[in-house]
Amino acid sequence: MATDTQVLVAGAGPVGLFMAAELNRHGVSCRIVDKNDGPTHASRAASIQARTLEILDSVSLADEFVQVVTSAMPQPAILPTTNSSNI
Question: Measured between alpha carbons, how far is 24 from 16 in angstroms, rounded to an integer?
């Protein structure tokens, strides 16, 4: 079977997907393989590391990433304050 795939990316997690996107951006054809048959519907990430933002910034994606993530976060409830002088 003939193929034009130049690189095989093992794993469709954040690192594998980022690598595949970067390869594609630089004109390198790739194929992604993963042990799972589709995307997960549960988030496994609760935070982002500073180094991840540095890497995203190196490809001009950090600002957009932060904007999308923060707009998707639930907004904190605004609770009424009490005036301690009235107690």
Answer: 12
| pTM of the predicted model as reported, rounded to 2 decimal places | 0.64
In one-letter notation, the amino acid at residue 40 is T
Closest CA to 32 of 21, 40, 24, 20: 20
Residue 53's nearest CA partner among 40, 41, 70 is 70
Sign, Cα dihedral of 6, 11, 14, 15: negative
Task: Give me the residue label for tokens 């910034």.
Answer: 57
Q: How far apart are alpha carbons 63 and 70 in whole angstroms? A: 11
Q: Is the pLDDT of residue 12 over 70?
A: yes
DSSP designation for 13: S
Distances (CA, A) of 31 to 11, 21, 27, 36, 54: 10, 11, 13, 15, 26
